[in-house]
Amino acid sequence: MKQEQNRGKRCHCIVCGAELGTKPLLEMAHMPASAQKIPLTKEEAENEAVDLRLFQCPGCGLVQFDCEPVDYYRDVIRSGGYSTTMVELRTRQYRHLIEKYHLEGKKFLEAGCGRGEFLKVLTSFPVKAYGIEHKGDLVEIARKDGLNVIRDFTERVDHVIGTEGPYDVFLSFNFLEHQPQPGVMLDCISNNLTEDGMGLITVPSFEYILDNDGYYELIRDHITYYTFETLRYLLESHGFQVLEEEMVNRDTLAVIVRKTGAKKAGQKPAAKKAVEIVYGKADVSGLEKNRDKLDHELENLSDSLKKENKTMAVWGASHQGFTLTATTHLKDSVSYIIDSAPFKQGRFAPGSGLPIVPPDYVTDHMVDAILIVAPGYTEEIAGNIRKWWGEQIRILTLRSEKVEELS
Ligand SMILES: [Zn+2]
Which of 95, 175, 212, 375 is most buried, taking the most CB atoms under 10 A from its CB? Predict the structure, then answer.
């Protein structure tokens, strides 16, 4: 029996509790059940598929899946690591926050700090930097790196975080969108903050996904899809005032908040009226069109390869690669998925069950074409394919809704 039949559905909004209703914005069949849990067997991988339904809450407007969260939602797994762009962004954000609000010497807490990638950047500022992380091996890595990190999670509202509280400022980087109880997380943090404590929060932007028809950005790990409006509603409902809002890296919402304590006085902001939500309803037609176009393109590609008796591989065991191979005609025509990350190799892609292999596997298992699905690394990978295997392999990539041939 497929696992998806055992997974419960949620009927109420994660943030305001309103009933989600019966009409999803979007239904997505046979999606990878997880972006991070990569099974060890083909059979297990084939069972790691779920049908996802994306809803918009009629109470607060928040877009969300109605499924259970992935079981590792408390862990902060950042595959990007230390990129120069991210270090520069955090440095700019920290400097602005500390200088503008005079936070020198204050205690900062990063709630969900992973291996401490961003906490490390904070240590070059004149503040006290603390972090909590749920995943034990990441805590160890952060501590070995000299960071002040403990294993902890904001499980309950009355949970006391560490022994250094109350903290003056909290940081939360791309973590809220994984949370099935973002309100509990915020209340817990609030209770561990000083009276006029502050916060800096980032989440992926849903508007960015809509503007770019980014169907393949939707993943089960991200159970909610915030806009400035719905994020503000969540924060105000939990006693935070939004002082600044900014779009960063083109695809991420960043907000600075201050604790007001309004929650204690019972001043929950009124949920929006249904009529406003109807006018503000998220338009996902572009996403659907993009998905259909791409599926059609990939069907044509699969057919033409099959006719010529040719083989193909995908490069990139990322969530986009998993979704594409699980949901389109690719699964019938692809032999394997190539990825350079050792911890993914020897495993199988959730949804499609395709094996994930290291680049040197190609030498003894040559294919006629490689489709690169690795946004941001396409040129580098294409260069390596030419360098290692010459001109014999056709190189293809995905740009928006089209398959393109690279020469
Ligand atoms: Zn809601």
Answer: 175
Output the CA 392–ligand 1 centroid distance in Å: 53
Q: What angle do CA 219, 62, 29 make, to 5 degrees?
A: 35
Residue 274 contacts by C-beta under 8 Å, 6 or more apart in sequence? Answer: 58
C-alpha of residue 230 to centroid of ligand 1, in Å: 8
Report the pLDDT averaged over residues 100-106. 98
DSSP 153-210: ---STT---TTTPSEEEEEEES-GGG-S-HHHHHHHHHHTEEEEEEEEEEEE-HHHHH
Which of these, 85, 90, 68, lies nearest to 6 by C-alpha position? 68
- Contact partners, residue 292, CB within 8 Å, separation at least 6: none
* 19 CA to centre of ligand 1 in angstroms: 8
Structure tokens at 73: 């939602």
In angstroms, the CA 83 to CA 372 distance is 21
Distance from the Cα of residue 239 to its chain's centroid: 25
pLDDT tens-digit profile of 188-207? 999 999 999 999 999 999 99
Tell how far the Cα of 66 is from the centroid of ligand 1, in angstroms. 12
Q: Give the separation between CA 63 and CA 66, rounded to whole angstroms.
A: 10
Please say if the pLDDT value at position 235 is more than 80. Answer: yes
Token pair of 183 as six digits: 């309100």
- Residue pair 91/234 in contact (Cβ under 8 Å)? The answer is no
- For residue 1, is pLDDT > 50? no
Q: 103: CA distance to ligand 1 center in Å?
A: 34
Q: What is the pLDDT of residue 375?
A: 74
Tell me how far the alpha carbon of residue 225 lies from the centroid of ligand 1, in angstroms: 12
How much distance in Å is there from the Cα of 56 to the middle of ligand 1?
8
Residue 228 alpha carbon to ligand 1 centre in Å:
14
* Cα 214 to ligand 1 centre (Å): 23
Q: What is the 17 CA–ligand 1 centroid distance (Å)? A: 6
Q: At what angle do helices 319-327 and 285-307 cross, to 10 degrees?
A: 70
Distance 54 CA to ligand 1 centre (A): 13
With bands split at pLDDT 50, 70 and 90, how would you rate the model's confidence at 256? Answer: very high
Q: Say if residues 350 and 39 touch (Cβ distance below 8 Å).
A: yes
Tell me what the mean pLDDT of segment 280-295 comes to: 87
pLDDT at 3: 45
For the chain, the first-to-last Cα distance in angstroms comes to 45
